[in-house]
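Re: [help] complex structure
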Amino acid sequence: DVVMTQSPLSLPVTLGQPASISCRSSQSLVYSDGNTYLNWFQQRPGQSPRRLIYKVSNRDSGVPDRFSGGGSGTDFTLKISRVEAEDVGVYYCMQGTHWPLTFGGGTKVEIK
Amino acid sequence: EVQLVESGGGLVKPGGSLRLSCEASGFTFSTYTMNWVRQAPGKGLEWVSSISSRSDYILYADSVRGRFTISRDNAKNSLYLQMNSLRAEDTAVYYCARGGRASDWFDSWGQGTLVTVSS
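Output below.
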């Protein structure tokens, strides 16, 4: 199975400051069609997960442009340019290239 | 608006069975791969099973293969998960999630239904 390793586990951030979450996969996530199926999900407290980013860097509809995704191969990053109070929650990366589909362990973003 | 509404969760004894349902609306259900993803209390997300639009491919996580069966009824816009031989470690919120690789995986999620396996 592809292991997805996120860091840090916890990320205290000051409002208005940037935040960055790392996700590393144990194998390349480049699929045979040339795409890299690496997604980012946000789960606010008490809510269902919501997809933010798909295929590394594509923002879903309605996702603020302060969220951005990047990376390639086995190393990926989710960045929040200026953290707002509504960004509090747990963020998960997920790979959709190899079976079984696997998620990272999550990074908890909280306000300092 | 895409809506996914899960139901069927509850308290069940170890070794028991439960059938979860997910009713879809707001999109053409029959054209999407559908999935079940679970989350144990206080833990992360775990993919459980996927079924293609015409049910011609079905996949399971090793942890549930042989005990869980995913199915769908496109005429009823519904997805199901039959769970047998339940174990304490199956205790989780079970989410229905839309989309396979063609839609870049899990673009919409339901609110989840809680399954508790305990004696």
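The first strand of chain A starts at residue 4 and ends at 7.
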